[in-house]
Amino acid sequence: MTAREDVVAALAAFTPRPIERRDLKRSAVAITLIEEDDGPAFLLTRRAPTLRGHSGQWALPGGRTDPGEDAGETARRELFEELGLGLDESTELGVLDDYATRSGYVITPVVLWAGAVGELTPNPDEVGAVHRVPLTLIDVEPRFLTIPESDAPVIQVPLFDRFVHAPTGAVLHQFREVVLHGRPTRVAHLEQPVFAWK
Predict the structure, then answer these.
(1) Which of 87, 173, 183, 189 supports an S-S bond with 91, CB 3.0-4.6 Å?
(2) How far is 180 from 138, CA to CA, in rounded Å?
(3) Res. 162: pLDDT tops 70
(4) Distance, CA of 121 to chain centre
(5) How far apart are the first and last CA of the chain?
(6) Are 114 and 85 a contacting pair, CB within 8 Å?
(7) Which positions fall inside the Nudix hydrolase domain (predicted)?
(8) Sorting pLDDT into bands at 50, 70 and 90, what band is 20?
(9) Residue pair 41/133 in contact by the 8 Å Cβ criterion
(10) Which domains does the chain have, with CATH numbers?
């Protein structure tokens, strides 16, 4: 069982690494922890098939940071815009390492505690489907591939008989390592598949 205080303690013991690159746009994603009858879970979406970029891919709620926002504000705003779930600043538990994407963003993963969550209202313009994923399903060993386009390994996290790739896969793997196992594993070096480079 992973309780709120366990997540707080694990994140407090971890020192996240920021990435400062002026050539990349700032963004944030929400790792939104919820309480389900059978244990803790998090919210994961499939991006709407009509989106111009990264349609149909697994994603954590998130997006580009607006002027004057910090990462927590961005993550909470995007969570509300995508799933209709409004959370205040008190739900922010901490952050993981920044991850620089091939498509020109630095992502800051923000861990939020939503507790018991009722019906969600996904925005059909952005979200094709939303899943309440038990934390036990991401407590697995990822697969690493080599590709000719990069010297860095491509991470694949098995989920629902498919694979979640970076950046989402990298973020979820680090969450598993840091929060579920207390290991300060780094993931910023892990590669995205070529189809996600644009």
Answers:
(1) 87
(2) 10
(3) yes
(4) 19
(5) 38
(6) yes
(7) 24-159
(8) very high
(9) yes
(10) 4-196 (3.90.79.10)
